[in-house]
Design brief:
two-stranded antiparallel ribbon, globular, six-stranded parallel sheet, DNA polymerase, domain 1, alpha/beta, 2 domains
């Protein structure tokens, strides 16, 4: 039984991965470092901002402590915000898909490695914020994808929002009643580890790199509510 859909954000709802890469590179330019597009999609896309900066600075043998990396994240967040306001866009088919879920009373949430401020900015600009009951961002988890922590926390928060009672959670949504929509193998592995069903969209990677997903589509707008219900049957 389908009872909830959890979305990744970058590469699923918004076409912002390239904006993240540009933001990282503008910050890293002060060290003479640049992440190539190929390397970003191969090694960095599924990481949180902290993990990304930590990996690239370790590879470059820069001796940066945790606070210095946090300062780089602040710079990157500011730059990303500027780019998102002028160049951010919602991926085709997403709005129709969200409307379909809303019409069928399916709760929706976001589980992303992006920062909350970045997610909220784009959702507000696109007027999509009301669709989502819960947003779990990088700041709320200790381990990023492919660890299932984010997916499980999102479900926990959804249950508190959707079916709370004074005595606790009434008829809680179970992991196998959730579908997670992802664009990377990191996210798909996290969802699978959490015991959730998976749909992959080929916005960032080819289908053969997303083979772990139960269903692969080129656009969310091509899915029907029956497609989703069959996954959870």
């Amino acid at each position: 039984m389908l009872r909830a859909v959890i979305f990744d954000f970058d590469g699923v709802i918004t076409d912002s991965e390239i904006l993240h890469l540009r933001s990282f590179n503008r910050v890293l330019a002060q060290f003479g470092i640049e992440i190539t597009t190929k390397d970003y999609y191969k090694d960095y896309l599924g990481l949180t901002d902290f993990e990304c900066f930590k990996l690239v600075t370790d590879k470059s043998q820069l001796q940066l402590d945790r606070q210095q990396i946090k300062n780089l994240i602040k710079q990157k967040t500011r730059i990303f915000g500027e780019l998102a306001k002028t160049e951010g866009r919602i991926i085709e088919g997403v709005r129709d898909f969200l409307e379909m879920l809303k019409q069928n009373n399916v709760p929706m949430a976001i589980c992303s490695g992006a920062l909350l401020a970045e997610i909220e900015l784009i959702l507000e600009e696109a007027r999509l914020r009301p669709f989502f009951e819960v947003i779990v961002s990088a700041e709320q988890v200790k381990k990023g994808k492919p660890d299932p922590e984010g997916c499980l926390l999102t479900l926990q928060k959804l249950n508190r929002m959707v079916s709370p009672t004074e005595a606790g959670i009434q008829n809680p949504i179970l992991p196998n009643q959730c579908i997670v929509v992802e664009d990377s193998h990191w996210g798909l592995e996290a969802a699978k580890a959490a015991g959730m069903h998976t749909i992959a969209v080929t916005n960032s990677y080819d289908a053969d790199q997303l083979a772990v997903a139960e269903k692969i589509v080129t656009q969310l707008g091509k899915l029907s509510i029956n497609d989703l219900q069959k996954l959870c049957a």
